[in-house]
Amino acid sequence: MSDSNLLKSIQHSFIGRDTQYPTVDGNISPRRYLDSAASTLMMEPAFEVTREFLEHYASTHSKLHYAAKGASEAFDWAHKRVLDFVDADENIYSSYFAGSGATAGFNRIATEFSAQRPDRDIVLVSEMEHHSNDLPHRAHAGEVVHIPAMGEGAAYGGIDVAVVQALIGKYGERINYIAVTGASNVTGAITPIHEIAQLAHSVGAYIVVDASQMIAHAPVSMNDADLDVLIFSGHKIYAPGSPGAIIAKTSLLNSMSPSELGGGMVTDVYLERYMTAGLLPDREEAGTPNIVGGITLGAVLDVLMRVGMNNIRKKEIGMIDMLWEQLSAIDEVNLYGPAPGDVPRTGTMTFNIKGFDHGLTAAALNDYHNIQVRNGCFCAHPYVREMLKRELWDMDLDPNALNAEADIERKRGMARASIGLHNSQEDLLALVEAIKDLIARKDEIHELYEPFGSNGYRHREYAPDEAAIFDPLITLEKALKG
């Protein structure tokens, strides 16, 4: 099967892509899932690999019975797929799995790097970071210096290499490492990681890349960029339930003491002492690992390599440009981040409808049009508030007010549509038409919804039955009845 035919085939093979839900008008229709930046749907061929593996399930760390041997070899295969996918030479890099996403990896790296080189007391972190690639560095580094983005106001986003160069010149060899996102989870703005890696290495600093938002959307080469550490979440790349993946230079990992102790990461244990395993990834994967999740992730990566990430990127660029153009033409819509023509972006787009709180937009899109988007600050509060500050000032609100009241929080955020491999141009056009519909019915929508919590909204008259969504007890009872 050609790459293009495989891409078309894979687009339709996601579990839950066509799940149906009721809408306010009483109809039932397939959803349009535009929330992949939060978590992607499951790729069905990869799930079939997992289902088949469960027929042979056993724990790893043994090869003396059939199932254990198969599990161990499959888990090794998954680690190798990770290295291959990010073009990381296995003679230079190693990979391991940790946690339920990228967060565990960032905490591990921040703790170790700061402990190893205390004389290097500066860490550069971009202002666009998700909290998981910001807070661990704040907790462990001597001082975090935030790298400002380009532009201002709603167009704020993207990293200017010249700004990084100036910070390198200012702090020099005090810099321990630079932590940047490969692509923003708020605007999709892609970071020039090759150039930043060169600048970091010019003063002996490391570069740590959060690839969670770029991993499913653009090709990555750790060899070409000479990256020191790259971390991503499996659930952002069509493998829900899989662990986080950490890829780092083996020399760096070998210089670290194990952060977690337990079975699998030792070669022998006595009452008086124990011997840590010298081999990676065993030394970093204490306990029984998430074997099922790791194999699922390996299968997804294998499929995407067959499709070709360049082909996926090419497809998405056209969709990104079209959606930006369509939404930019609507006067009542505010778009955020740099335009795709100014800074390359992934398929993540944040917006607000004038006169609508972000939670109201998300709720009404769901209830009336079965379009599922995210809303809020997306665990990137400083970045979001920087883009919103002019709008909030116009409303006489402080974008950085601490302990803000609920009515302020309902305005300190955005709606976010984010595409996945399963989405089509029709999905995006449906979003555009749905936004136009909400604008045309603004007064009606406001009358029919009431706020709840810090940023939520609910319809005053419409509440679907639980069985129409998902109730684990109902599903379990059906399964038990056969």
CATH class of the largest domain: Alpha Beta
The number of helical runs is 17
Write the CATH fold name of the largest domain: Aspartate Aminotransferase, domain 2
The CATH homology group name of the largest domain: Type I PLP-dependent aspartate aminotransferase-like (Major domain)
How much is the radius of gyration in Å? 23 Å
Quantity of strands, as a count: 21
Number of spatially distinct domains: 2
- Identify the CATH architecture of the largest domain: 3-Layer(aba) Sandwich
Explain this structure to me?
Strand 7, helix 5 and strand 8 form a beta-alpha-beta unit. The protein starts with a helix and ends with a helix. Strands 6-12-11-10-9-7-8 form a 7-stranded mixed beta sheet, with helices on both faces. Helix content is 39%, strand content 18%. Helix 2 (44-54) packs antiparallel against helix 10 (291-307), helix 3 (66-85) crosses helix 10 (291-307) and helix 12 packs across helix 15 (425-440). With 482 residues, the protein is of the alpha/beta class. It folds into 2 domains: 3-30 and 308-468, Alpha-Beta Complex (Aspartate Aminotransferase, domain 1); 48-307, 3-Layer(aba) Sandwich (Aspartate Aminotransferase, domain 2).
